[in-house]
């Protein structure tokens, strides 16, 4: 396994970095191209991930400043029915588990358009969202979700705590990956928590990413990729204890970690913590050499995707995409797939309709384009939502079309 030269070191522990996977050059996956910029160059950045030889944190270099990525962001969580249901169920579960009521305070970091906090608001629980993207935060405020437009870290946590805001619950779902200053972020959680407060964090599970060939989880907006064993180290370094872990279906397999202050005795550590860390050890996630296999799996997956596309086009078939998620852009750019294979894609998010995918310049339409053009195949780019999407698009069977998912392996159904 190749040790990376130069001055690169782990963003958590400062350890040496080793190659994990190199996906070539790619544009920012949420930087959709409007029609009037089609003749203008896009910026491409290296998309290479490394693993730390000491703490096994998988990470990208900070190629792009977070301000450039997140100040205006096209990702609105509120456009997926499955996401909304996931959020609502979480709120029901956690409010009961922690006995949250009108005197409680919930803070969500990376609160997006308020899709999750709105369910706490309905229960009369006081909330604060922290969300750096100005356009997305504005949508949250329209929903009645109080939102602070800042990047969260120890500094913001100290300001809030100094002004009397402490949290009974901190929610950090799918945001820790987007934080370059990881230590400041986790330190901030400790500062903001009430003595017996709880923090839950969700992230795509690195174990599932590796076992499921999910290289399209890697993009510039995600600086870090987590296993439970690494997150436990990071939280312990900042005086926090992981006391429970749940496995979730989201993003192709995620973890939800429950953490409290190390000095809180309220929540005993459950056996789920050692069980999941043991699974990770058995898969080799505590040995740097085991990470080297992933790059081979990724190249093999690319060849299978291209084989399917070439054979379909040779047979005279037409292919449309469904969805314009970040992961789709990593996949299409890495595989070199443009309108030579996929005529167009569709997305329910009106913000993306009429734009073009970054790098590949595949046009994005509203979903009714599919019924108008009757493609032979519909490739579902957010393959993690395949059941939901295939259900919504059941009518394509009327003209004999089939669905395709590219990950974990090309599957036609
Ligand atoms: Zn490290």
UniProtKB/TrEMBL annotation:
Protein name as it appears in the record: Methyltransferase domain-containing protein
Record InterPro entries: Methyltransf_Zn-bd_dom_put, Methyltransf_Zn-bd_dom_put_sf, MeTrfase_14, SAM-dependent_MTases_sf
The keyword Lyase is annotated on this UniProt entry: no
A Gene Ontology BP annotation from the UniProt entry: methylation
Superkingdom of the organism of origin: Bacteria
Organism: Bradyrhizobium erythrophlei
One GO molecular-function entry: methyltransferase activity
Domain C-methyltransferase: start-end pairs: 250-408
Pfam families according to UniProt: Methyltransf_13, Methyltransf_14, Methyltransf_23
Ligase among keywords: no
Residues covered by the Methyltransferase putative zinc binding domain: 10-70
